[in-house]
Amino acid sequence: MTRTTSSTSPLLSPLTFRNGRTAANRIWVAPMTNKASHHDGTLSDDEFGFLVARAAGGFGVVETCASHVTKDGQAWTGELAMYDNLHVPGWRRLAEAHRTEGALLIGQAFHGGMRTLRGDGRPTPWSCSPSGDDAPPGEEIREGTQEDIERVIAAFAAGAARLESAGVDGVELHGAHGYLLSQFQSAVLNRRTDEWGGSLECRARLIRSCMQAVRAAVSDEFIIGVRLSPESSPGLPGIDLDETLQIARWMCDDGADFIHISLWNAEKMTTKRPQEHAARLFRDALPREVPLITAGNIWTEEDALAQLDHGADAVALGRAAITTPDWPLRVVEQGGDPKRPPIKGAELSALALGPVFIDYMRRWEGFVAD
Ligand SMILES: Cc1cc2nc3c(=O)[nH]c(=O)nc-3n(C[C@H](O)[C@H](O)[C@H](O)COP(=O)(O)O)c2cc1C
């Protein structure tokens, strides 16, 4: 595809959500765990600096890392949180800075389920189903009770209300990548036989209940979306494309203002139907007024435009937003190239990554040069 002239790129046109709120353009920073928050889940200066530099770089929407909605839902050290009023000032600081830069701020809300942190006196992680008798000591998973489930639904709602009270523009329920909400969706991980497992209706009940509870807890102006993994991946078995399409439709019935699908490699067609791209399938399945966002290995303007051609309304950039904080300005408006990894630690530091985040990026193969 030939590069469009800077001012006419469809990526730079405003994006309107179902609730009428508008983002300046169709280029998002994808949610990225950076491990740089304080131990109590409050925002650190490093995380603030990283996110606001991307807002200043022209991204229309900036998503935060996955942030836990209950204390026992934390999956990473140094993770942002939204379970207590203690966290509100940090969110308010972020929201005000994003408003100044003209970007919308969306907090990603999640619970780690079976992937929550262990040790240090923390309770045994819970999820849809317990670990088997063969679980190694220290790897046990407890089956969530009705009380656990009701508590987490209420916590998603309370977290979203807290974000709204801080002036954040919206929340994204993290229903992807094998955390609690997608654990319940999985036909392999979820072996329950009560109202929270079994049929698709029952496996989708948790994410639907969270969406409904969040919608009821905030005003119509607050943007609510959901991130879904359309199909199984190594850490997440039992996810069927057609079931995820149905869940996305239900999410819209339940009040979603946008649907975000995480593809890892957005160039690829679906596994279940190799002739078809997920963006086209989801776009055709959803009400027109609900924007569809795709993410996965998008580096160039051509990559992003290909997603719009497939049916996406906006794109979310992960690693390219790290390497090129002004991607919308540099790559789309000015026709420049994104910076590609490997990148030296000192250079990442100049791109507003703190030392903890740089160290974490060493785990992403080929990303950090030294
Ligand atoms: C450092 C890092 C942290 C991530 N953390 C999250 C996260 O907290 N929540 C989430 O939904 N996805 C997370 N992801 C996945 C990204 O949002 C994105 O979907 C993925 O990296 C593919 O996009 P990319 O190829 O543009 O990086 C993370 C990715 C990276 C690189």
Can you give a write-up of this model?
With 370 residues, this protein is α/β, with parallel strands linked by helices. It has helices at 45-56, 88-101, 146-165, 180-185, 200-203, 205-217, 241-253, 278-285, 301-310, 319-323, 327-333, 345-350, 355-361, and strands at 15-16, 22-23, 27-29, 61-68, 104-110, 126-127, 142-143, 170-175, 223-228, 258-262, 292-295, 314-317. The chain has 13 helices and twelve strands. Strand 3 (27-29), helix 1 (45-56) and strand 4 (61-68) form a beta-alpha-beta unit. The longest helix has 20 residues, at 146-165. The site of flavin mononucleotide has 22 residues, from strand 4 and helix 10.
Comma- or semicolon-separated keywords:
binds flavin mononucleotide; TIM Barrel; 370 residues; alpha/beta; 14% strand; disordered N terminus; two-stranded antiparallel sheet; 8-stranded parallel β-barrel; 12 strands
In terms of DSSP E residues, the strand content is 5-15%
* Low-confidence segments: 1-5
CATH architecture: Alpha-Beta Barrel
Q: Can you give the mean pLDDT?
A: 97
Radius of gyration: 19 Å
Portion of residues in helices? 25-40%
The kinds of small molecule bound in this structure are: flavin mononucleotide
CATH C-level category: Alpha Beta
Shape: globular
Number of helices: 13
Sheet/helix structural class: alpha/beta
Major beta sheet, strand line-up: 3-4-5-8-9-10-11-12
How many β-strand runs? Answer: 12
What fold name goes in the CATH topology slot? TIM Barrel
